[in-house]
Description:
The protein is an alpha/beta fold. The protein has 17 helices and 15 strands. A 6-stranded antiparallel β-sheet has the order 2-1-4-5-6-7, covered by helices on one side. The chain has a 6-stranded mixed β-sheet with strand order 8-12-13-3-14-15.
Amino acid sequence: MLLQLTISNFAIVSFLELDLRPGMTSITGETGAGKSIAIDALALALGERADADSVRPGADKADISARFRIEKLPRVKAWLSEQELDEQDECILRRTLSREGRSRGYINGTPVPLSQLKALGALLINIHGQHAHQELQKSDYQRGLLDAYAGHHQLMQQVSTHYQQWRQLSNERKQLQGEQAQWQAQRQLLEYQVAELDELALAGDEFPILEAEHKRLANGAELLNDCQLALNVLADGEETNALQLLRQGLKVLIDLAQMDNRLSPVQEMIESSLIQLEEGHGELSRYLDRLELDPERLHEVESRLGTVMELARKHHVQPAALHDFHQEITTQLAEMDHNDSRLLELDKEVEQAKEQFLQAAERLSQSRQRYAQSLNQQITQSLHQLSMEHGRFEITVTADNDGGYSPLGIDRVEFLVSTNPGQPMSPLARVASGGELSRISLAIQVITAQKVETPTLIFDEVDVGVSGPTAAVVGKLLRQLGDSTQVLVITHLPQVAGNGHQHYFVSKDSADNDTQTRMQELDEHSRLQELARLLGGNKITANTLANARELLVD
């Protein structure tokens, strides 16, 4: 429940601090005194849109804070825990608004976006404005009232989840169908290209190997001649060769090293060179023995290289990249085949998801119909109490089979009413009398509010158009509601105000070009005076005081 509301520099309020209690709190005051300012400020603390003009003239910023007791509100505590905000037995919502239009929100002292203020505020307070009957004429609002009264949150969550799954699968299918239409023209070309490259079957490292082999085969004769020449120069020449000359030089160095041992390292180097020369000669000889001219293999290599080069030019890639290109288009073709299979799967999954959504929506629809019957009886009875003896109320819940599916289900909810004998049931929006519409709206709001889990309810002049004995019934209904939850009622009717467990009076003072709104709690004597004022105007008589005493409920 709301424990305290503190307002600073908001509109014509310089400073106001209200300490609130359980039960029904009546708020009255003179016309234009600003009875709704506290509600407007509270709405700002709950995350509603801010207007820089709301800052009191001459002040730099407006500051509003609302303190709540939440130890018996598990949904609120769970929400705070989920958002990783401080979770105690009390919770403070605060909003500041600068003259420049900058707005900041806080929950338990932690800065938060306004969306979080609004989400938490919806769990703490439900405000019923004097124009609620205008919203009440809208189908979506009517459905929301019925769902709030029914409290079937789990059913609604199931419907929403199944709807989102169905739409997600449907969107995936639609996207794949679009891609398939685009790819269909490419498929035939890809299939031909992949088949052609499959036939080539070029390995990943084959092209550089082919190039090296072609170079060797194409230069076979030159390799034979030059290798033989190199062997002759190294060791096979009859007249002279490098090996013979190196041996002669080594023989001289051996003799010299015996005369001067400083030449021993030179001798060792020449000996090492002689060994390497002999090994090199041997390797070259063995290479030459294996070297053969193979025109047939050369033709095969040239033919395969030619095919690789031709296909590379055809596909506008480098020959060395042809293998990767083959893999890429093979993957694309496989994806197309996979998408074809996925589309067949999606057809089944979409139908299954739609069926699950419709089943969940049907369960929700049945729940709405059950609670609609309960509401029909209660609201009809309440209309009779509100001087509409022949009033009848009915909620219709019908399936919209023309594609009206949404996360909220398949139902179209409509409030129907008949106010006179023999008059057919008609949509609430067609009720002619404004007073009747106000009473119907009030009956609906009071009854549905009894089932809503919000701990604090505010009624801002919802009794407009009501008077006399009907007003007394409205007051009793609101007091009954206050017996189970905290209710704040802004009213101009003494029959309603007299039912409050406590009573605040709003006044406006103007002096020295300054205007301020004040609110003060009334004691029993002051309450009698205010009820008498509401009954008879500014002239209070013994009769109006007597009437006021009759209206004041202990």
